[in-house]
Every structure is written in C-alpha cells, then in structure tokens.
Amino acid sequence: MKESPEALRERKRRQREKLRNLVLLLFPKDCFRCHRFGLEMEFAHLKPTGLRGRQRGSVEALRDVLQNRESYARLCWECHRGIDSGKLPLELEEAPF
C-alpha cells in the first residue's frame, strides 16, 4: 500500500525532529564563542564537510552534524555572522562539544 502524501510528510517531520533533538543533546546549550544562553543558536562549520547550500534543518544537514561533530560549533546568530564575515575570530583551542 502506497503512503499518502500527508503520511509521508508527517513521517519525514518526525524523523527530522528526532535527529534535531539528538543533535541538540550532543552540543552545549550556550554559544561556543561568547557563551551566552537564550539566543537563537545555529550550527556553524569549523571545517568543511562537503555539505553545500542552505539546508538548515534538513535531514541531510542534521546527519552531517552527527557524522562530523568535530567540524561544527553551536553559535549564536551574532557570532556566526561575525565569524562568517571575518569580523570576529574563532579560536579553536578546545573542542566545541
């Protein structure tokens, strides 16, 4: 029996949510750079992993974070933009997790 489009969307949503929750458990809750809490957090590449494009929240992106934990850091929006623009340094003296 073929899965309905609604059932397929719901199954994919649940899969994405499970992966997202696992990823969030594996990283500290504060920003790796400024250590602030309660801000919108993002996963930033510290080293290239081969993942390209704006795939935020996608199952592929979450799997990439799980498979390459040492290549990512959890950053607040401000620090992420500052590092990407070259305005803020990112010291990698310790692992981000």
Rg is 15 Å
Shape: elongated
Task: Find the structural class using helix and strand composition.
Answer: alpha+beta
- The overall average pLDDT, rounded, is 84
What is the overall number of helices? 3
Query: How many distinct folded domains?
Result: 1
Flag low-confidence runs.
none
List SSEs in N-to-C order. HEHEH
In the sheet with the most strands, the strands line up as 1-2
Classify the beta-strand content into a percent band. Answer: 5-15%
Helical content stands at 40-55%
Number of DSSP strand runs: 2
- Could you describe the largest sheet, including whether it forms a barrel? 2 strands, antiparallel
Span between termini: 43 Å
Provide an overview of this structure.
- There is one protein chain.
- The chain has 3 helices and 2 strands; from the N terminus they run H-E-H-E-H.
- With 97 residues, it is α+β, with helices and mostly antiparallel strands.
- Strands 1-2 form a two-stranded antiparallel sheet.
- Helix 1 packs parallel to helix 2.
Short description:
With 97 residues, the chain is α+β, with helices and mostly antiparallel strands. The chain has helices spanning 5-26, 59-67, 77-85, and strands spanning 41-45, 72-76. The chain has one domain (5-85).
